[in-house]
Amino acid sequence: MAQIIFYEKPGCINNRRQKQLLRQSGHTVVAKNLLAEDWSVEPERLREFFAGSPVSAWFNRGAPSIKQGLVNPDTLEDDQAIGLMLTDPLLIRRPLMQVGQTKMAGFDEEKICAWIGLDEPEKDLKICPKTRKAESCHG
Description:
The chain is an alpha+beta fold.
């Protein structure tokens, strides 16, 4: 089983449920506060979590600045996206997960299952139970 470094927003219900599923699947979860992490020291370290994904998929679509129309992830280049995330970490799609040198952003059950193995979840872990909207546990 894997040891997963799991960058989360503390208090996010979905992140709590996702960690629980990972632990039930036999993995060790080392939780870290995504919002308190100083990504500006090594911005490339943050970028590595999004390798192979389009820039628009790097974002938490429930972030206040996106919902208010202040940021449009569909129009950004990668350097712009990282710059915005460094100033407003709520924009970062979560969780960020790392096992060894392999990194991933978001909780895609199929990818995680192929990557490290995962038991069948009881509920959709992409839907926030507070709002019933995808990836919108923010605050």
